[in-house]
Write a structure and sequence with these properties.
With 486 residues, the protein is α/β, with parallel strands linked by helices. It has an eight-stranded mixed sheet, with helices on both faces. β4, α4 and β5 form a beta-alpha-beta unit. α12 runs antiparallel to α18. The chain is globular. The N and C termini lie far apart (59 Å). The relative contact order is 0.09.
Length: 486
Amino acid sequence: MNNGKADFGLVGLAVMGENLVLNIESRGYCVCVFNRTIGKVDSFLSGRAKDRNILGAHSGEELCGKLKPPRKVMLMVKAGPPVDETIEILLPHLDSGDTIIDGGNSHFSDTIRRTEELGKKGILFVGTGVSGGEEGALAGPSIMPGGNRDAWPGIKPILQSIAAKVSDGTPCCDWIGSDGAGHYVKMVHNGIEYGDMQLICEAYNIMSSGLKMSPSEIHDVFVEWNAGVLDSYLIEISRDILAKLDDETGAPMVEMILDTAGQKGTGKWTAVSGLDLDVPIPQIAEAVFARCISAIKEERVHASSILQGPNKPYEGDPGAFIRELHDAIYASKICSYAQGFQLIAKAAKEYHWDLDFGRIALMWRGGCIIRAVFLENIGDAFANDPDLPNLLLDPYFKKIVTDAQDAWRHVVTVTVNLGIPAASLTAALIYYDSYRSARLPANLLQAQRDYFGAHKYERIDKPRGEFFHTNWTGRGGNTAASTYTA
């Protein structure tokens, strides 16, 4: 035991906090823990932390007093006011040059504010995304720190030691960027996660409702998928879920779970940020809306007895269709990541962050929820062209999506004809078709806006940036509204 000062402090002993403490201690560091519910500190010290190099504190003052200077304290508390409240508890006992790390899913705008406010008081603030869930926190998560760069040399050895490592030993943790960059990248990670999960759920539903396959049969498909290009953490756990039987009934566990999904907000924040920055991320947004519509279970049950849809079996070759479904999922997954990275790129310009997109992709190769084999290819795409505007334009991904097109379109057609909702698959295809369209019907839309609101339009035979107004009715006059984007 270390009877002196601790190397690192952590506040918040819920599932993620406890496991991170055990991870940090296992790397040779002494950790001091504090929780506002004091009983959790004592039960942790007498339980999982017993006989380990972990100290306890019953107050913020005691925690700070037990840390080596300059102090490093990580907060694993609920996002929002609890973070600010915990900071206020610690502040009177911290000195200039000490570091506070917010490891929760805070909104990036709060992290921007906290970095600035604490910087004025001499405190180095870091907002870091931590992905990997309970298992990742204990064994090695993906960690995405951003904030006050001066804090990085002091916390880098600890964070990189506890992060997941890929096959060559590279840690899935590196500095992201200034103020809110780390939490923003984690937020978009979670948005992509929403899209990935929804795609997998739609594949399950198509096989279950459309092909009338049992969970065991779908499990076998996922086993095969996870051995190929779709190899990923989410396919892996979905495979395992489909094999699990309920202890009480003996039925497949997945069929005993009510079909209503929860959410904690990061997917919604990603969708809202897309709207705020005028970046099209329809697939991520549809994944959020899919959770929303799942939540109105009773209303859906009532509607199912009133509203009619197709009632016919799939009449094609199931094996061939499953192969097409595989390709459709892969192409849609690429679109989801393409949207996510476009959003990160636009945010980098908006908030003046110097981000390395390839390095971000490589940090997601291990530990995190969206870890997948093709993240290596995303890293390669940005290494080949750091200014790549969209992953779909990279030769590697362009070929995959082009080769998958026929299968992708057939899968979407079948889901429509069978009345099986596949919002994410369909949104991905619509995104692809919209992005590759040199001409969209927005010319008519802009004419409509000019007709009823004199919002003006650009002309195809004039330079970009020149705006015109037409007196469509002969009664409107020549006064036009100013042009702006809300």
